[in-house]
Design brief:
Strand content: 15-25%
Helix content: 25-40%
Largest sheet: 8 strands, mixed
CATH architecture of the domain at 213-325: 2-Layer Sandwich
Domain FAD-binding: 32-194, 315-370
Protein name: FAD/NAD(P)-binding domain-containing protein
Keywords: FAD, Flavoprotein, Membrane, Oxidoreductase, Transmembrane, Transmembrane helix
Strand order of the largest sheet: 6-5-14-15-16-13-19-22
Radius of gyration: 24 Å
Shape: globular
Number of strands: 22
Family: Belongs to the paxM FAD-dependent monooxygenase family.
Region (Disordered): 1-23, 454-475
Structural class: alpha+beta
CATH class of the domain at 213-325: Alpha Beta
Number of helices: 14
Length: 487
């Protein structure tokens, strides 16, 4: 039963608390998973559960998915799982490979640095860049339409040993065995969970802090461009240029060519460096008219294609977005039958594409632990959700610190950030950078209940943990075969 049913109601959960000493119910009934949020994490998890044969429904707060029109980069860390799900070739159809990681220039278009990737012979995959909405469209198309319910924002939920009941703002409800908060940085699931835990004295103080805001960005994707004026759009691989403002200009802007003879662009301003810029971005309403006003004030900034204004003029104003770059690593990811993934659990700065990659990696690891739940008991569910967090937290924590530093290097304008950028780009040996890229590329989790994607590249990747459920089933089958042979 789902929130799609008109004014659906359910009996309240048992009065037994989550922490009492009553024996947990055990059941062989199939699991039903309620996913709040149809972003990248929620959709990717839905596809994984579909492959695993696990019942689920996705509830999206919006009436219609309208993802940011920004550039997105997927790395080998998630491409193996995408190939495993049979989506890799389709992804390649709307993306361009980033064979060089691009160029960093001054606002006078003078060279600062050139970034290189490790060869696909080593990494196995090339980084793929594309407009974010096209990945959303692909993932959405793989989830059965009857399993996604729109205009369903979580209001509150109740959980017990018997299950979890979610109430939505449209006065409908849904019941399941597990509730997954995949509803983004402003997660309603997290807010209700934390409010409950705080009342019980179970919430760490760090989880009550506000997310840190260091940057604001305007971003968009042009309409189809004339190749005679923009010949880069015809190149097979993505042409990427980042431009850093001078000491009095707290802006950084970048361009990326994508399929369809288009260019994705973004403009980032660092807060706290220039008062006028802070006021302009902080005080403006988040509407197309105000976005246009900000675009008009910076349209003279130079790019390798002319000015930003040339790209703005080729971009429909209704696809321009304004977003905060925020970061926060929450400590509490799960309690009882509820668990958080993606931005709801960890908001990473979008300086390396790590936010989307980590959200989908969360989905992979969580799907593995959900698949292993047998029988469907409260204790087994709690253990699975705890195991997911235990397996993912250190990896995310490492990415969190790396993205924070990368954002400072790419978008930072304080004197020490400029000094650090000069040192890193001029003095760090290429061999050291290659070792770091190899280390980062080795983590490639896949669904352990599906055949693994073929091995690509020469890089040694971290071995996949086997499915405990499959191991148990194999052991049981072996015992039955041995007993039958004896008889």
């Amino acid at each position: 039963m789902s929130a799609s049913a008109e004014n659906t109601t359910y009996a309240a959960p048992s009065d037994r608390s989550l922490g009492n000493n009553q024996p947990p119910a055990r059941s062989d009934k199939p699991l039903h998973v309620v996913i709040a949020g149809a972003g990248l994490a929620g959709l990717f998890l839905g596809i994984l559960l579909e492959k695993a044969g696990i019942s689920y429904e996705i509830f999206e707060r919006s009436a219609k998915i309208k993802p940011l029109g920004a550039i997105m980069c997927l790395t080998p860390n998630i491409l193996a799982a995408i190939e495993q799900l049979g989506l890799y070739e389709e992804l390649l159809s709307f993306s361009k490979p980033l064979r060089d990681c691009g160029y960093l220039l001054t606002d006078k278009l003078e060279h600062i640095a050139h970034f290189e990737s490790l060869s696909p012979e080593i990494m196995g995959y090339e980084r793929q860049l594309f407009p974010r909405p096209e990945l959303h469209h692909m993932l959405l198309s793989k989830v059965p339409v009857e399993k996604i319910h729109f205009s369903s924002k979580v209001s509150f939920f109740e959980q017990s040993q018997d299950g979890v009941i979610v109430t939505f703002e449209n006065n409908t409800t849904a019941r399941g065995d597990i509730l997954i908060g995949a509803d983004g940085a402003r997660s309603s699931v997290r807010q209700h969970l934390y409010k409950t835990l705080d009342k019980e004295g179970l919430l760490p103080k760090s989880d009550n802090q506000d997310m840190k805001r260091g940057f604001i960005s305007l971003l968009g994707t042009t309409s189809v461009l004339d190749p005679a004026k923009y010949p880069d759009v015809l190149k097979e691989d993505c042409q990427s240029y980042g431009i850093v403002g001078d000491g009095g200009n707290p802006y950084t802007w970048a361009t990326f060519t994508v399929p369809g003879n288009r260019i994705c662009w973004n403009v980032v301003v660092q807060l706290g460096v220039n008062t006028a810029a802070d006021e302009q971005f902080e005080c403006s309403d988040w509407v197309p008219q105000q976005n246009q006003g900000m675009m008009d004030s910076i349209r003279h900034f130079k790019t390798t294609y002319g000015t930003l204004g040339d790209l703005f003029d080729a971009t429909p104003i209704d696809v321009v977005s304004k977003v905060y770059f925020e970061d926060m690593l929450f400590e509490t990811w799960n309690h009882g039958r509820t668990v958080l993934i993606g931005d709801a659990a960890h908001k990473l700065l979008p300086s390396t594409g790590a936010g989307a990659v980590n959200a989908m990696q969360d989905a992979v690891i969580l799907a593995n632990h959900i698949y292993d739940i047998r029988p469907t008991s409260f204790e087994n569910i709690k253990a699975a959700l705890h195991g997911y967090k235990a397996e993912r937290f250190d990896a995310v924590k490492d990415q969190y610190s790396q993205t924070h530093m990368a954002a400072r290097l790419q978008f930072g304008h304080t004197w020490w950030e400029r000094a650090l950028r000069h040192i890193l780009f001029n003095w760090i040996p290429r061999s050291m950078q290659s070792r770091q890229m190899s280390k980062e590329g080795a983590y490639r989790p896949q669904a352990n209940f599906l055949p693994q994607a073929p091995r690509r590249g020469t890089l040694d990747v971290i071995p996949q943990k086997p499915s405990k459920r499959i191991q148990r089933e194999q052991e049981e089958a072996k015992k039955i075969a041995t007993a039958a042979a004896i008889l």
